[in-house]
Specification:
The structure is a single chain. The protein is 76% helix and 3% strand. It is mainly alpha-helical and 196 residues long. Helix 2 runs antiparallel to helix 3 and helix 4 packs across helix 7. The chain starts with a helix and ends with a strand.
Length: 196
């Protein structure tokens, strides 16, 4: 049965296309399973709503800026857990004045413009045009958060949003330093992957 399915697929798709479909399937499977598992863990820690808010903010920036990528499922899971747990814990314990948060977010938008994106080794190299687009979008999203923070001094999860963005910027800087080279010097956007 398995051989027949493979033959049917090879009639319609090339081996390269099938490899891409398999990669996409595995990425979706891994990301959805990590999302659900993390939600369960954070819910058990009475942080479920904060987890959902944090992941929404993180994805809105990380999709354009990239960052540290790990080679294993569990390595990625643990990194994501500690990243989000750290941001949630910081949001519960450290409250900076709105003016300081605004200044940090503005600086963060500039840092993302300079450092991003840091992509995964598993993805094709970005062209210079794609690099500029992702760099601009990552900065623009962060700048929109800055505008939100400037216009609204109090809103639900404000402090959490702030710390998620700060943690994302810090890990992006770490990823850039780990690479030991600038995108433009290498003329590539190889990812920062760490094997656990």
């Amino acid at each position: 049965m398995k051989a027949e399915i493979k033959e049917l697929l090879l009639e319609k798709y090339t081996k390269k296309e099938l490899a891409r479909l398999r990669y996409l399937y595995l990425c979706l499977l891994h990301e959805v399973s990590k999302f659900i598992l993390l939600y369960v863990v954070f819910s058990l820690l009475h942080m479920g709503n904060e987890y959902l808010a944090a992941i929404a903010v993180l994805l809105s920036i990380r999709n354009f800026s990239g960052g540290i990528h790990l080679d294993t499922y569990w390595g990625c899971f643990l990194f994501t857990f500690f990243f989000l747990f750290g941001a949630i814990a910081a949001s519960r314990t450290i409250q900076l004045a709105p003016a300081i948060q605004n200044a940090v977010l503005l600086a963060g938008a500039l840092i993302l413009f300079v450092t991003g994106p840091v992509t995964s080794d598993n993805r094709p190299e970005l062209t210079k045009r794609q690099h500029r687009i992702y760099m601009s979008l990552g900065s623009a999203v962060t700048f929109l958060y800055f505008i939100l923070f400037l216009c609204e001094e109090t809103f639900t999860f404000r402090n959490l949003f702030f710390w998620v963005i700060v943690f994302q910027i810090l890990q992006l800087i770490a990823a850039k330093i780990y690479k030991k080279g600038d995108h433009h010097e290498k003329n590539s956007t190889e990812g920062t992957r760490i094997t656990l």
